[in-house]
Amino acid sequence: MSLIRDVQPLPPLAAPSPPVAVTHRRERGSRLHAVDGIRLLAALMVALHHFAGTNRVNQPDNRIWDRPVSDIMPTVFHVASYGWIGVEIFFVISGFVICMSCWGRTPKQFFVSRVIRLYPAYWFAVLFTTGVLVALPGVWERLPWRDVLLNLTMLQSGSGVRNVDGVYWTLWSELRFYLLFLVVVATGLTYRKVVLFCCVWGVAAMLAPVAKLPLLELIANPEGAWYFIAGLALYLMHRFGQDLLLWGILGMSWLMAQRELGLRVDEVEHVSSWRGAVLIFTVFLLTMVAIALGHTDRIRGRWLVTAGSLTYPLYLTHYAAGTTVINRLRDTMDARLLVGVVLVGFLVLSWLVHRFVERPVAGVVKRGLETAFVRVRTAR
Questions:
Q1: What share of the chain is helix, strand, coil (3-state, %, to 5)?
Q2: How distant is the alpha carbon of residue 119 from its chain centre?
Q3: Cα separation of 229 and 248, whole Å?
Q4: Please, which residues have CB within 8 angstroms of residue 42's CB and are 6 or more apart in sequence?
Q5: Count of CB atoms situated within 10 Å of the CB of 287
Q6: What is the band of 26 on the pLDDT scale with cuts at 50, 70, 90?
Q7: Which residue numbers delimit the Acyltransferase domain (predicted)?
């Protein structure tokens, strides 16, 4: 675009301005320790919510506490009632981290990285939770064994089968995001392609509910799309720097997300307010902007890396098993102390899962998949 200047005389032929080059600011692979800390904080928010902040645990004669939590520990209940927002925080971080970790990778590398990241801890969680429900019945219904086995695929939602643990519903949203993003990865990630992907996915997510096409709604995932899109835009800010287009995508994501937050308050949670939920989500989003723009680069620490590694196992194992443990121990100690003890216990379990399940199993699976892909490429 040329600018008309009030200068005489005009040159006979004005040379066009060179295009603005989009260059990356940071190399892929530079770990953002602040994100690790936020991930663990989000997981703890969700766990606290499930233990002491849901509408279920605030009902009279509920199976977990036997009486409303707001009567037992009102302050804890009020704080925990907003912990469900940790799920939306996970989705934004997922969009950011997936884009960061997949930049410059092939579809094969993307597939392998997702399998070894998702499945080892998940397999353990399915078997662990089922074992707890068998050993301590009466709080949650254990699924038939055929459904437990199907849960090991992580594809049970696509088959209309219930989850072993209710928290697994988010994995179905994650898998659909990975499948969509794999298309972009296959073509080679660039700034332009990721921006185009955000725009096309956003349009699809906006149209899906009114189009009343089940397949479009399944693929577009309108309930979660804008959180993932926000994460993608934030990573582009981190890698290439901010611009008006990225701020526009992020602003649109916030506007769509605040409505989704309101719908979840009204239709699912029933324990918190729209204003409080939007305030918490906005603070988180601004924190992610600060991370994306490099204002938190000095925040570093090995303990933050460890914190990040605990997030996924904690999320997968805490809900059904944790509330079952609370049911058995609720009359043995102060309720607040019990919640703290159970949280610490699951943090320890999460470290053990990461150290003795995730790491060794991921290594075995990675080597096996790489060997298999070599055969796919070379076998005649």
A1: 70, 0, 30
A2: 15
A3: 12
A4: 86, 87, 89, 90, 93, 311
A5: 16
A6: low
A7: 33-354
Alpha-carbon torsion (59, 60, 65, 69), positive or negative: positive
* Alpha-carbon gap, residue 299 to 310, rounded angstroms: 19
Residues 325, 342 contacting (CB under 8 angstroms): yes
- Using DSSP, state whether 29 is helix, strand or coil: coil
Question: What confidence category does residue 17 fall into, taking pLDDT thresholds of 50, 70 and 90?
Answer: very low
Q: Collect all residues with Cβ–Cβ distance below 8 Å to 265 and sequence separation of at least 6.
A: 272, 273, 274, 277
66-81 pLDDT, tens digit per residue, is 999 999 999 999 999 9
| 9: DSSP letter | S
Whole-structure pTM value: 0.91
Task: State which H helix or E strand residue 227 sits in.
Answer: helix 225-240
Amino acid, res. 371: T
In this structure, what are the phi and psi dihedrals at residue 59, rounded to the nearest 5 degrees?
-90, 150
Measured CA to CA, the distance from residue 40 to residue 37 in angstroms comes to 5
The interaxial angle of helices 244-264 and 85-102, nearest 10 deg, is: 150
**Helix 225-240 to helix 85-102 angle, to the nearest 10 degrees?**
50
Give residue-wise pLDDT tens across range 282-302. 999 999 999 999 999 999 999
The pLDDT-based confidence of 20 (bands split at 50, 70, 90) is very low
Helix, strand counts (H, E) of the chain: 16, 0
Rounded mean pLDDT, 339-350: 98
